[in-house]
Write a structure and sequence with these properties.
This protein is α/β, with parallel strands linked by helices. It has 13 helices and 13 strands. The protein binds beta-D-ribofuranose and calcium ion.
Length: 316
């Protein structure tokens, strides 16, 4: 039986790759997508969702809902240096109109979460791969409904490793630490996929040359453009030697949970301004609130990812 999922995202290059993986996986049925301010501003995120769905052409016409355009506290912070000005590295896709490949949800993202959780009690896995603002708003509005999710899988945090936006904080938690704290403290059944795990699954120049470039279909072309991969030079946008598959790993952890090694921990997030803003940390002596992925079977995950992205079942 396939798993019903909703994906809350801030598309974003690796968010786009996560959507491609999710829609290409026979194990999953993507019912809806919620957009949230994050890697780029909300209008760009919503446009990018449309572009990626135009590329994917899903036959089940998922709901698309517009979410929060700013964090619960503080000002929006974006990550254009990694994702490009438009959030998709300038990849050329002319988005279709709504209706053919997706439907516009007639309400805000938190309402989509609440409505779907109530409609399919204990059946949906919510995968959150952006700042957790929409989830926190839904929790504030209807905590009972949010308890109807089967599981919540969050890409965020840096538990026993360095941050990626500051030395201490990971991007998604840094953008809206209060929302992250609300979600983690809610007691919902949660899996956390932090940098500790996602840094084990990079796209490398070797993989790009051996697997992605030779494939020459619309998806391989998209990966090259969106990640800003320069073949002659062998690096990604900004001169990076690795492009981490943060968000696809959160989807992978739902498709093949046995490929990630988890530890039950109690995790909190620093929401007070200062050096440690957005930092996730372990709290000892407190009831555990998350299953934290600390190790991943890299070969198996990368195999799944590349096969789903570039496999024979993908249209040209
Ligand atoms: C997270 O931050 C974003 O830039 C990525 O899309 C991912 O969700 C990694 O820290
Ligand atoms: Ca993201």
């Amino acid at each position: 039986m396939n798993k019903k999922v909703i994906i809350d995202c801030d598309v974003g290059v690796d968010d786009a790759l996560a959507l491609i993986l999710a829609f290409g996986s026979p194990e999953l049925e993507v019912l809806g997508i919620a957009g949230v301010n994050g890697n780029v501003s909300l209008p760009k995120v919503m446009k990018n969702i449309e572009k990626v769905l135009t590329l994917i052409r899903p036959s089940n016409r998922p709901w698309v809902a517009r979410g929060a355009d700013r964090p619960l506290q503080g000002d929006p912070v974006h990550a254009e240096s990694l994702h490009g000005e438009d959030g998709l590295g300038g990849a050329q896709i002319q988005p279709e109109e709504a209706g053919r490949y997706w439907q516009v949800f007639p309400g805000a993202a938190e309402e989509l979460l609440i409505e779907m959780a109530r409609r399919y009690p204990a059946q949906i896995t919510l995968i959150a791969i952006g700042p957790l603002t929409n989830l926190a708003l839904a929790l504030q509005k209807d905590p009972e409904a949010m308890r109807q999710f089967n599981e919540i899988v969050v890409m965020g945090g840096a538990v026993r490793t360095r941050g990626n936006i500051t030395p201490h904080a990971e991007f998604n938690f840094y953008v809206d630490p209060l929302a992250a704290k609300i979600v983690l403290d809610s007691g919902l059944p949660g899996t956390l996929v932090p940098l500790d795990a996602t840094h084990q699954v990079p796209l490398t120049p070797e993989l790009m040359e051996e697997k992605v470039r030779p494939r020459q279909n619309s998806f391989s072309q998209f990966v090259i453009e969106a990640t800003g991969y320069e073949s002659g030079e062998g690096y990604f946008r900004g001169g990076r030697k690795a492009f981490y598959l943060h968000d696809p790993l959160a989807v992978g952890a739902v498709i093949q949970p046995e490929w990630v090694k988890k530890e039950k921990l109690s995790i909190s997030v620093e929401a007070k301004k200062g050096e440690f803003y957005g930092k996730s940390y372990e709290v000892s002596g407190r009831k555990t609130n998350a299953e934290v992925c600390l190790k991943v079977d890299r070969e198996k995950f990368l195999g799944l990812f590349l096969n789903s992205l570039l496999g024979e079942n993908r249209h040209l």
